[in-house]
TrEMBL record:
Name used for this protein in its record: Sensory transduction protein RegX3
Domain of life, source organism: Bacteria
Record's signal peptide: none
SUPFAM superfamilies in the record: CheY-like (SSF52172)
Residue span(s) of domain Response regulatory: 2-117
Keyword Transcription: yes
Pfam family, one: Trans_reg_C
Domain OmpR/PhoB-type: 130-225
Amino acid sequence: MRLLLVEDDNHVAAALSAVLARHGFAVTHARSGEEALQALVPEGAGFGVVLLDLGLPDQDGYEVCGKIRKRTSTPVIMVTARADVRSRIHGLNLGADDYVVKPYDTGELLARIHAVARRAVPDDAATPGDDALHLGPVRIELPTRQVSVDGSVVQLTRKEFDLLALLAQRPGVVFRREQIISEVWRTSWEGTGRTLEVHVASLRSKLRMPALIETVRGVGYRLVAPAA
């Protein structure tokens, strides 16, 4: 996923960019509000998320958020030291999708980035008027929880379906193991890692598409959308 990091402190930006890169993000760094707005032309410029620091040198971060929302529907996460409720409400009213207060835990920030990104289902994964995800020969019907490959229904367990649906909503995005465990199994990573590996192996086998789910060593998994 491409991520626009709007941060005027070069040292903070460099450290955060390194962390994000290790988790599969392609980071573009903007040092001011105007630079951020230019980077989002045209129509969001393909960014999956904007990480917006409010303390910018040229414009108030809230003002920048409002301008971003007028130009694109790209999810925006505000990052600021302002922890009061009124500031958070103001940011959300301007169109921010989430609000992270400094100092923050990196794991929480990554989880919030993935969460807001998943809410914006990509155009190539969903057909208008159809509650299904289409990924090459794979069709995932969300309401009925039915999966088919080339028209043939594949029987999946509840957790197998949840895992596949999670990955399929953001093809190409790397999901951390901890995040998958939290969202699919609703528990912590400890002691559950082997369960995840087994379910991934089972999905690859049942779908007869071993390359569909790619292992990103040391990080997690991502779904590689096959050709139609």
